[in-house]
Amino acid sequence: MASMGRKEKGQPLRGSRIAVAILIGVLLGCVFAVFYPHGFFSSSDSAAVHRTISTSNFQIGASSCESAERIKMLKSDIISLSEKNAELKKQARELNEKLQQAEQGKDNAQKQVLVLGKQLKAGPFGTVNSMRTNPTVLPDSSVNSRLAKLLEEIAVENELIVALANSNVKSMLEVWFTSIKRVGIPNYLVIALDDHIVDFCKSNDVPVYKRDPDEGIDSVARTGGNHAVSGLKFNILREFLQLGYSVLLSDIDIVYLQNPFDHLYRDSDVESMTDGHDNMTAYGYNDVFDEPAMGWARYAHTMRIWVYNSGFFYIRPTIPSIELLDRVADRLSRQPNSWDQAVFNEELFYPSHPGYDGLHASKRTMDFYMFMNSKILFKTVRKDVNLKKLKPVIVHINYHPDKLPRMQAVVEFYVNGKQDALETFPDGSDW
User: For a FRET experiment, which of 27, 68, 191, 305 has its CA 20 to 30 Å from that of 274?
Assistant: First the structure.
């Protein structure tokens, strides 16, 4: 009975504890419901989500900034690479030039020094030879693509005859190209200075080229006389040399009797016919100047040579050759009353001296009997039985103003065999 009594007393106490626990749970639920309406763990999850979104946005912004910076860096790299590429191309061109020079100068000691920078000892006495020819320039077709294309068709072994002509010399031009055709020379070109000459050449199946308009040159070409037109060649020839072609420059008052390319040495920058008339005047001599007032030192030795003829010379595409053309053209433009042949020779022969740098060009004088001027022909050759038997390569009527009839007489004498064709002319001119 006692135990039953204790049991019955403990029942209400346990129920009260359960009720209190339920009440506390309800109260805590209410408190959480008030203070955490979105749940106890939602706040931290939301913060994490916000942090994730913020981080993501930051990364996107940072990525955008980084991308812009990257593009800027890439552009800078491209510019740098382009500059390096241009420098490499320049080095490649220079190496090609050196290679070309080296190939042309395999057996030339001085060229090896220039190209390879290698110093050599001089050989035994009598075996040492200095450089005779300067290396040719690297051809540049961008100078004049139209002319470059034409020259590819006309030139033979990168050389050709070139002549300038306007309507004033039409009759002589016909004798000129007829003699060239008769000999069978294929590589020649007329630079027409007006449209009439273009039409005339085309109608006679003569290779012709007319430059792009240039008022400075065209004004002279239209109205200029022989000397004025002759001076234009130094401006015009430059492009031929830059394109890598050797040019045999020819005036129109010339009759061709043989192919001149079979008689050239090609060992100098400039190879020219002479205005000299014998060995001394053509090739040079020691001329003694006498000044009695100097007593014991009255005799002074001088070196003399008659000038090269600027109406017939062979010029190779080298730096000194191009410099020669530039120098002469510049002086003719600044000194309009100067004679192109005088300027041509002064620039070619004057040595360096204080205030002046001479041109370092090699030169050769042509055989004056093979490349004959009209003084030699009319004053000497026609009067000598043996010399009359010689057949020159060309005859240049440079010493006489009555050019056309003398050209025709040369054709009659050397081509048609008329032995007295030259006899009616005086040695010199009538004035």
Answer: 191
Side chain identity at residue 352, one-letter code: S
Task: Convert the pLDDT of each residue in 140-162 to its tens digit.
Answer: 999 999 999 999 999 999 999 99
d(CA 411, CA 181): 13
Structure tokens at 180: 């060239």
What single-letter amino acid sits at 265?
Answer: Y
**Inter-helix orientation angle 145-154/226-242, to 10°:** 90
The DSSP annotation for 53-72 comes to HHHHHHHHHHHHHHHHHHHH
pLDDT tens track for 234-271? 999 999 999 999 999 999 999 999 999 999 999 999 99
Amino acid at 144: N
- φ and ψ at residue 336, rounded to 5 degrees: -60, -20
d(CA 244, CA 325): 15
DSSP β-ladder status, 254-256 and 394-396: antiparallel
Distance, in Å, from the CA atom of 45 to the CA atom of 153, rounded to the nearest integer, reads 86
Token digits of residue 195: 């449209």
Residue 240 makes CB contacts below 8 A (sequence gap 6+) with 147, 151, 162, 247, 317
The first and second tokens of residue 347, run together, are 């620039």
Beta strands in 167-307 (DSSP E): 188-192, 208-210, 246-250, 254-256, 270-274, 285-290, 299-304
| Element (DSSP H or E) covering residue 255 | strand 254-256
Give per-residue pLDDT as tens, 366-423: 999 999 999 999 999 999 999 999 999 999 999 999 999 999 999 999 999 999 999 9
Question: Three-class SS of residue 314?
Answer: strand
Cα 297 to the chain's mean position, in Å?
51
**pTM, entire model:** 0.72
